[in-house]
């Protein structure tokens, strides 16, 4: 195991267990790592207020990555280090595209989750995951002029989910960065943004070389980060495409795989 000075890890499916909780073991691993000088950096697609529920419990106080890299904020003092939004014009174009096709989409703007109808089953499903209440705009949602950190399409129908991925990519191409997670989420952010680019910015902020980093993740939005880091780790619960780019395969999150990797890094640092 490399002598890491920084460990970046995804939240859902990686940091959190199968029930979406922080275990005592991973909290102790975070504490031990930070005591020996290793930076622990969260790298999540979640919105900032949602992620902070867990990061406060975890005791993580560092520059961390939210909205797949559209926001880097210091969790110790709330200071924004980097932010890149889609812009009002592109946000409106993408919303109109989803509206035309009748697909569900939600907007993240100013750390708020904004939807058409908060009674929609997809909204309720997401609220249950993130622990945040959506703001329902009704039909004015489509003409709201919002700027967005991230847009998220959700479909529980496999064929529709694949169609959304293909058609959004075809329509917007390099004007966006698109990734998937949870098997039903289509995540859209600015093309200057992904977790790898955000991790590079955090490393520059701390003066830590790429070679002294470990990145741990499980989903499509973690692939670039896993490839970029000095050691890239895929969780055992990852799909094959994520495992294919990793240097190391950890046990799944149900077996505390991320905690085990951090424990090895701490042992190497002592």
TrEMBL record:
Q: Which PROSITE patterns match?
A: COF_2
Q: Which Pfam families match?
A: Hydrolase_3 (PF08282)
| One Gene Ontology cellular component | cytosol
One of the record's GO molecular function terms: magnesium ion binding
Spell out the protein name for this chain.
Answer: Hydrolase
- The source organism is Synergistes jonesii
């Amino acid at each position: 195991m490399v002598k890491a000075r920084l460990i970046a890890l995804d939240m859902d499916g990686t940091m959190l267990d199968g029930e979406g909780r922080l275990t005592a073991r991973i909290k102790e691993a975070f504490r031990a790592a930070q005591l020996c000088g290793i930076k622990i950096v969260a790298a999540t697609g979640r919105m900032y207020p949602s992620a902070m529920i867990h990061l406060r419990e975890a005791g993580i106080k560092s520059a961390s990555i939210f909205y797949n890299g559209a926001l880097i904020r210091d969790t110790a003092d709330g200071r924004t280090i980097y932010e890149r939004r889609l812009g009002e014009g592109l946000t409106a174009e993408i919303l109109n595209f989803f509206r035309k096709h009748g697909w569900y989409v939600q907007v993240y703007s100013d750390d708020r989750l904004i939807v058409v109808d908060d009674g929609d089953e997809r909204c309720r499903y997401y609220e249950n995951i993130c622990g945040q209440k959506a703001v329902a705009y009704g039909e004015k949602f489509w003409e709201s002029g919002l700027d967005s950190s991230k847009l998220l399409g959700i479909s529980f129908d496999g064929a529709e989910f694949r169609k959304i991925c293909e058609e959004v990519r075809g329509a917007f191409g390099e004007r966006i960065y698109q990734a998937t997670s949870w098997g039903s989420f289509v995540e859209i952010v600015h093309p200057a943004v992904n977790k790898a680019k955000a991790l590079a910015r955090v490393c520059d902020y701390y003066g830590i070389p790429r070679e002294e980093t470990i990145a741990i993740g499980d989903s499509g939005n973690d692939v670039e980060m896993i490839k970029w880091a000095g050691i890239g780790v895929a969780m055992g619960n990852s799909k094959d495409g994520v495992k294919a780019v990793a240097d190391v395969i950890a046990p799944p999150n149900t077996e505390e795989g991320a905690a085990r990797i951090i424990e090895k890094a701490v042992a190497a640092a002592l």
